[in-house]
Specification:
This protein is of the alpha/beta class. It has nine helices and six strands. The model has no long low-confidence stretch (mean pLDDT about 95). Bound molecules: pantoate.
């Protein structure tokens, strides 16, 4: 497994690769991320997983600070999953100049999570556009757990005329029914029970 931290290094490696599958993550990897890697491996010659906690998509500073980070454990999981390449850029590497883009995706930019997390999807669009620019992947894989995010990324790909195919992948759940998420690490056991009950109610209505 190769690990790159700079745009220059990863681009010179990718120069002669044919089909590239891309799994963007913010780390704190779990089985749902690994399932995306596994799908990508069956559909592409090379699979790249990025680990980058994107400051632009956090509307609360406290949330960014508290976001779980464990790169050593992430690398061990990716190695066990036989991921080919890991890209771990710094903030400076991703955003060498100030970016003040405002994307608009119609209703998707206004309702549900967009309403409660102002600027969140704009930040996701900024980072995904930048990753697509750096890696030019053939296919990019996103979990259906974040369904609105998946729709936003599909709309982004269309808006920027990207040649990357955006692929949604099935939700992975704990035995309790709770959808796997890096953020679950921040829940107490009681909160997890409540979340799994809500999740079951929403799944089976
Ligand atoms: O779903 C996530 O982990 C993030 O929003 C993503 C897609 C990696 C962009 O930072």
């Amino acid at each position: 497994m190769l690990v790159f931290t700079t745009v220059k290094e990863i681009q010179s490696f990718l120069n002669d690769q044919k089909s590239v599958g891309f799994v963007p993550t913010m780390g704190a990897l779990h089985q749902a991320h690994i399932s995306l890697i596994e799908i990508s491996k069956t559909e592409n010659e090379i699979t790249i997983c990025s680990i980058f906690v994107n400051p632009k998509q956090f509307n609360k500073k406290e949330d960014l600070i508290k976001y779980p980070r464990n790169t050593a454990a992430d690398l061990a999981k990716l190695k066990a999953a036989k991921c080919d390449v890991v890209f771990i850029p710094s903030v400076e590497e991703m955003y060498p100049t100030a970016i003040k883009k405002e994307f608009y995706f119609g209703m998707l930019s206004e309702v549900m999570e967009a309403e409660h997390r102002p600027g969140h999807f704009n930040g996701v669009a900024i980072v995904i556009e930048r990753f697509f620019e750096i890696l030019n992947p053939t296919n990019a894989y996103f979990g259906e757990k974040d369904y609105q995010q998946l729709a936003v990324v599909k709309a982004l790909a269309e808006q920027i005329n990207s040649s990357t195919k955006v692929i949604g992948c099935p939700i992975f759940r704990e035995k309790s029914g709770l959808a796997m998420s890096s953020r679950n690490e921040r829940l107490t056991e009681e909160e997890k029970v409540v979340a799994s009950q809500i999740s079951k109610a929403l799944t089976f209505v």
